[in-house]
Specification:
The complex is a heterodimer of chains A (163) and B (162).
Chain A lengths: L6 E5 L4 E4 L3 E10 L5 E6 L4 E8 L5 E5 L10 E6 L7 E4 L1 E4 L2 E5 L6 E8 L2 E7 L5 E4 L5 E3 L3 E4 L4 E7 L1
Antiparallel strand pairs in A: 1-16, 2-15, 3-13, 3-14, 3-16, 4-12, 4-15, 5-6, 5-11, 6-10, 7-8, 7-11, 9-10
Chain B lengths: L7 E5 L3 E5 L2 E10 L5 E7 L4 E16 L10 E6 L7 E4 L7 E18 L2 E7 L5 E4 L5 E3 L2 E5 L5 E7 L1
Antiparallel strand pairs in B: 1-13, 2-12, 3-10, 3-11, 3-13, 4-9, 4-12, 5-8, 6-7, 6-8
Classes of the chains: A mainly beta (163), B mainly beta (162).
Amino acid sequence: MMQYDVKSAHATNTGLLATQNPVRLKSITVTSGTVSARNTAVCDPTVNDSGTYSRTSPSTTITVTMTNHGFTTGQRVFLDFTSGTGRDGVYAVTSTGDDTFTCADVASTTTSGNVTAYSSIAVEIDTYNTVGLPILIPGEGIYCPNGIFVGCGSSVTATVCYG
Amino acid sequence: MGMQYDVLSYHASSSGLIYNGRTRLKGVVISPVASVTYNSCFVDTAGSLAGTYDIPGTTTCTVTSANHGLSNGSRVAINFTSGTAQDDAYTVANATANTFTIATASLTTDGNAAVYPNILVELDSSSGTAFYTLIPGEGVLATEGLAAVLPIANVSATVFYG
């Protein structure tokens, strides 16, 4: 049987662009540092849009402004909040207009800032406690033609293997 | 080296269709939210039955589905598409030509149900620890389509198929 090599990359909760080359995702190990619901997603790094967001206490609704986002209600996207205190993770969006959408958070503190949305998710993994979860993807893995962005929820790290 | 093949993944937050067509279930991540026993099922949509159900304030649910063909003791997965019964795997009892009963929580509710007799994989969980099941070989064949039957809002799953 022909041998083949793989590479690995470790992502923290800031997210990681592991590679921009066409690869197959072979495995992912998700390790949460908190006993709470968290989402981790491996996304196509080229399918993303940037915008701004706000959440006003006591509401738990995040309102995102993103020009021509193209999302449909119920679609799951990974939101990478690059400023403010929004919690990175996968959210089901509610489209409220061509340029706006909302999503439900668990936090209700007032915050605002910038956000990047990754809408082409190759795999999404949910965790609820601190037990590491290794996942060997069957077959040759999941083909990622434009590379791999690993988006981790708050207090979550992930190690991906690809090749 | 065998023929290469890619797989796809699907994240399920609730019961529903994963893939419409012939495919193989290759792996499942179960992510429960609480230390309660739940059953999660992944089914072949082939042979699925449409019906109605009624739970009249007891723990016995009567399912009505014309010519269902099920036998006492059969294990089925049921997606209750209306009402408040919990999606789950159940054991058929008191089967007649058009009805059967299952044991549920004590409820007063009724509505519509999709019954799946062809359970490909049933996975139980009893804590909030997510776990992964890699299915051996090429996986379990779903001849017509692959669907998830998950306890309402308490379990999510990531499925690998192809």
